[in-house]
């Protein structure tokens, strides 16, 4: 698994530096997609921050590095809202719901099983997740994140197909989580490590470039 991630990172930088060279050597699948993301929640000592479910969208690039094995580069984003629900005794921390963009930038590997017109697959990726509140009182947050996914590619021709996918998405919050409320400076911090689990279900159209 570790070796697969290392190969994916190397191929990522090669793709950035020489995309024409990679196209000449192999097959690249480009897939714009859309679907639905499950927002998830953080639990603090003082209350619970809930990110609402909403549609998401994105794009992925898969490049073949061995038979039935590809590296994948993917970006996705959900534009949604969140609200903080304080527990009893912390009502002074109550705020109005606010808009937030949740996105993932990932690189990893895809293992496939070639069944002619249908190709089941599983994926493992690592990278970053970002949380961008659409309110100047709150700061954007970037965190390390990993995803586990699976699905199927349904081929309509040699160059076009459908991609159906489900993912488990895990941003990691090592070292604590801070959350500020209001212009007066009220806020709180979780000092221990924590994490949040999200997920999405998506579908997209595959376009194949290269050999």
Give a verbal description of the structure:
This protein has 211 residues and is mainly beta. The protein has a single domain, classed as Porin (Beta Barrel). It contains 2 helices and 13 strands; from the N terminus they run ααβββββββββββββ. The protein has an 8-stranded antiparallel beta barrel. It starts with a helix and ends with a strand. 26% of the residues are buried.
Percent range for β-strand residues: over 45%
Helix fraction? 10-25%
CATH architecture descriptor text: Beta Barrel
Distance between the termini: 27 Å
Low-confidence stretches: 181-193
The whole-angstrom Rg is: 20 Å
Q: Per CATH, what is the topology?
A: Porin
- Classification by helices and strands: mainly beta
Using the alpha-carbon principal axes, give the shape: elongated
- Largest sheet features: 8 strands, antiparallel, barrel
Number of strands: 13
What's the mean pLDDT score? Answer: 81
